Amino acid sequence: MSTHTTARGATAARGEAGRGAGLGAPLDLRDSHSRGFGLGFVVKLVLMALINAFGLYGILAAWAAGNWGILAFLVVALVVADLVYFLPTRKMLPAKYLYPGLIFLLIFQIFVVLYTAATAFTNYGDGHNATKAAAISQLTTTYEQRVEGSAPYPVTVVEGGAGLALATVQEGQVLVGTAEQPLAPVGDATVTDGRVAEVPGYEVLSYTEVLGAQDQLSELRVPVSEQAEDGALRTDDGRTAYAYDPTLVYDEGADAMVADDGTVYTNNSEGAFVNSDGEALSPGWRVFVGLDNFAAIFDPAILGGPFLAVTLWTFTFAILSVALTFFLGLLLAILFNDEKLKFRNVYRAIIFLPYAFPAFLSILIWAGLLNTDYGFVNEILLGGAGVPWLDNPWLARISLLLVNLWLGFPYMFLVTTGALQAIPGELYESAEMDGAGPVRQFGSITLPMLMVAVGPLLIASFAMNFNNFNVIYLLTGGGPQDVESTTGVGATDILISFVYKIAFAGGSNDYGLAAALSILIFIMVAVISGLTFRRSKALEEIS
Fold first, then answer.
1. Could you please report the per-residue DSSP string of 87-113?
2. What is the pLDDT of residues 249-280, one digit of tens each?
């Protein structure tokens, strides 16, 4: 072997060693003990500590709140995160980029859909918000009356082996009682300024600790004596208690609430206690109701009539909004696509301005412009005419379409302008040589080629307008309202605003029914989007 070859091999070896020791070399954790702890290794340790600290905090918080589903999800998510980001293997490299998006997809999409679907089969709403145990506790707390002639008790909140207790001073003697044991005298207690300061076997809670235990304290009832007619002590502030007598008691054997006058409220299996006259106690609790919410939507006596009218207007509004904005945007795009037109870029910028302005403010401005009494349109443009743009059902619908046209046509102008510029000019030249006029060229070349390019965007625009809550709520509020309707539905309500009124703006907030409507909206949009996507794919194959 020559000296030249040997030197070249040594140089190559030194180069490989240099590259291996450079900053660009991947950090091998398995060999970190032999080379010392590099910067990358320290950064990974810090990231691992932070991720696990936040993960453990969420797990412990879920444990304390009793949310076992969330706890299980956090445990799995944390374990997978440790494997993906800190396992010393290159096989996990794609997962490092996909994992955050997957987590957000599960939280903000999959979980929301599943939770909404689960709620749709319950009676969740006003008066049915919590569990049965919480409803019973609330009923027994609400239906109490103060014992006639009872004096206030200066109390101190203490905690012992049996949980929270109340200590008070009566006739110079310290008494302590719990939820199970009535007030009883204790010895060797310390009293300061008429209040109990120390009790053997109990810890006196500070003011801050009392505030932290407010939920438990609000449910605490300490019997005054062995005699039930003496009532039980109840305190709201942890300093003064009064004797209360329950007027409603839960009979666990009969699964019923019994009033002091003998009236029995039995469990109707629908999330409420009801007496023989059909009067229900409030609050109730959440129960599974099957398809009752969906049946109510299609029942003419409940929501069937309003649901059908709102659905028809929703489809009309979405279809007309897409059609009007598309064809106006396309018309303007064709007009300003002429290269011979002077200042066409200036005109394009002016046309795009409505889209650049926040839609939220634009809608509010239009609501003021269309005001019947003081609006600019009536007062200035129409010379003081009192046209009820937003108060007449048909005019309100027309106003919505026009305002939505103002908001949406710049977007369509933008996308169709780009699509028009992508159509080869040779197609039009060939069409002219074959004797095709502008109308024939538009129908045979421009429109088919545009639909291939903007078809998916039209589908997305339809889905957006199908759920265009902002323009409905800000411009008309869904009105004008039908005064004879019990649902509060208006002439311009679409399905999403109808859902909002059922869930939040009605006299009785029915979240279960609103969730059922939301599921139907999801199905409608999914079916229509699927069909139109198939149609747009067919157009693409034809072209």
1. SS-GGGHHHHHHHHHHHHHIIIIIHHH
2. 899 999 999 998 889 999 999 999 999 999 99
